[in-house]
Amino acid sequence: MLSVDIRHATGDFALEVAFTAPPTGVTALFGPSGAGKSTVLNAVAGLLRPQGGRIALGGETLFDAATRVLVPAHRRRIGVVFQEGRLFPHLSVRDNLLFGRRRSPDARSGPAIGPVVDLLGLGGLLGRSPVTLSGGERQRVALGRALLMRPRWLLLDEPLSALDMARRAEILPYLERLRDQSNVPMLLVSHAIDEVARLADRVVLLDAGRVEADGTVAEVFSRLDLAHLTGQFEAGAVLHAVVAGHDPAYGLTRLTVDGGTVTLPGLDLPVGSAVRLRVRSRDVMLATVEPQGVSANTILSVTVAAVKTDGAVAYVRLALGGQHLVSRITRLSADRLALAPGQPVYAVIKAVTVDR
């Protein structure tokens, strides 16, 4: 368990953050630019000394202002991957990786380079110089170097923000594989909701140096009171679903999700596979009677849980069994449909993003 309770002020900015992160999966520090995310990550890594508070990892205190404990960064066994990778330009990819292995507590019995190379798809890059790599390739090498240090935790400071859309799409599957196969807990800093929804298990939502929310991805991103922080156009909900079957004739896959069926373009996954769905609030239409003669393939029977208006916009939280959707509609539409908590309605899903 990673426990953080720190205070730090720089100029007009004051940080006061407290949270705990489980020793498994991915915990995301999410929020707008300037919220304090990287400051927290640097404090955990030992690259910044907070002015007050305490940081502990398992039973070890890494920092305590009251007792003046400060474990230096090189003794924390925490791997850090920054936005630009920060590889050694005079070393080959292989030597950059081996540098990480030499930094492990016992280099002779440290992790083998082969499995890490296979995990991150680095086999064809080992003899190359970092200056010849693409941005996505450099980030994969930086991840491998950090893993070979045999870290207790891996900290990722906006690892995709310096990449274009094509390179982000290239590296995201490797980050998913890292999450699922490495058994190293991760702290991910990001202001991109799509990255967090796809990679994280838990979210600590920061704004102006304070924790605004702390919980699972599904819980935090479906809260209506946080819509101003999760974004008008990218906000939405995360659902857990299971592959129920395939329709080869139409190239479609059916997923079951808490009493409903979601139909989407075919997935190359066996029946019974668990997947995570991200449904943007802007892609959810509402109807008080079951729609007929529409092109959408997914219509779910849901119940209005809450309605929150913001100017001309209304956010509607919808209960789907034990999970929740969010719909973003006009306030005029909410009034015309007379939406109120407890009301049964139909959610027409226009688009779904799948995390396999």
Provide an overview of this structure:
This protein is α+β, with helices and mostly antiparallel strands. It has two domains: 2-217, 3-Layer(aba) Sandwich (Rossmann fold); 236-355, OB fold (Dihydrolipoamide Acetyltransferase, E2P). It is 22% helix and 38% strand. It has nine helices and 21 strands. It has helices at 37-45, 93-102, 113-120, 135-147, 165-181, 193-199, 217-221, 227-230, 331-336, and strands at 2-10, 13-21, 26-30, 52-57, 60-64, 69-70, 78-81, 153-157, 186-190, 202-207, 210-216, 236-247, 252-257, 260-265, 274-280, 284-287, 298-310, 313-320, 323-330, 344-349, 353-355. Strand 1 (2-10) and strand 2 form a beta hairpin. Helix 4 runs parallel beside helix 5 (165-181). The protein is globular and about 65 Å long.
